[in-house]
Structure formats: C-alpha cells, structure tokens
Design goal:
The chain has 145 residues and is of the alpha+beta class. The protein folds into 2 domains: 5-55, no CATH class; 63-144, no CATH class. It has helices at residues 11-28, 32-48, 74-81, 135-144, and strands at 5-8, 52-55, 63-70, 98-106, 111-120, 123-126, 131-132. Helix 1 runs antiparallel to helix 2. The chain is elongated. The relative contact order is 0.15.
Length: 145
C-alpha cells in the first residue's frame, strides 16, 4: 500500500490568514484601496497557505521536517528505518555526499513516517519509500529533530 499525504490547514495557518483579513478590514476604513488589497491577500493566503499534512484514514495532523545529512550516516539511518534497534546518527552536512531524510510526525500522538533520498544526478532520488515507524522508534526520532 502506497502512503500519500495531503496538505491541509494547520491552526496556525488559519490564525495568520484571519489576522491578515482583520487587518485589511480595519485598513479599509482608513484607505479603501489598501484595505481591499490586504483583504485579497488574506483570502489568497487562506486558500494557498497550508503547512499541515494528513494521511488518508488517519485523523491526526502531521508536521514535516527535512534534514540534509552526511552520506556517512546512510547505513545507520537505513538500519533504523528497517526496524533494527539502532540509534541513528543524524550529522548534518554534505561531506562525502548528501542524503535527505524527510520526516512527517506528530509528537503528541507518537506517530512518525520517514523517507530517505540520496542526491544523485542533480536531484534527490528516493532510496526508500515512506516507512511507518514503530512507536518507540518514532519517539526516538522525533526527540532528535
């Protein structure tokens, strides 16, 4: 089964869009043209600005974090993603090459998904698919972020 994430509004997104809308409405009474422009910006941000992720069938809001790591960490991270009882080394940098670790997580629920990609031919190529981590592995990875 392939795991697909859908971008959704986080509470922070709605608050920011609401503040922009209220500022535009207040500004409308001072200077109409500027107020209309700011209200349109607020509406546009309400439609476009989405920083949360949801998985189909799961009603938990996830955050996404990307880490560019040394290629020397690849075996440690691969073993961790394969479920071995290993503490992953997360050393940021690009010595010897770069790998990208993408993590979708919710710290309160203890849920995490991860994908590892390697930088080849001027782009990141997936090394693994999206992997669902066990509860204890999810907590240890989230604590390292």
């Amino acid at each position: 089964m392939e795991i697909n994430f859908k971008k959704v509004h986080a509470p922070k997104d709605l608050i920011i869009s609401g503040i922009i809308l209220l500022a535009g409405i207040g500004l409308f009474f001072i200077q109409k043209a500027m107020g209309v422009c700011v209200v349109l910006c607020g509406l546009l941000s309400l439609l476009v600005y989405k920083s949360g992720y949801k998985l189909d069938g799961l009603d938990v809001l996830l955050k996404k974090k990307q880490l560019e790591l040394n290629k020397n960490c690849q075996t440690s991270v691969m073993d961790f993603l394969n479920g071995k009882n290993v503490v992953p080394q997360l050393v940021e940098g690009n010595e010897g090459g770069t790998i990208l670790l993408e993590v979708w997580y919710n710290a309160a629920a203890g849920i995490a998904y991860a994908r590892l990609s390697e930088y080849k031919e001027l782009s990141f190529q997936n090394v693994t698919g999206i992997v669902e981590l066990t509860a204890e592995n999810a907590q240890s990875l989230i604590s390292k972020l």
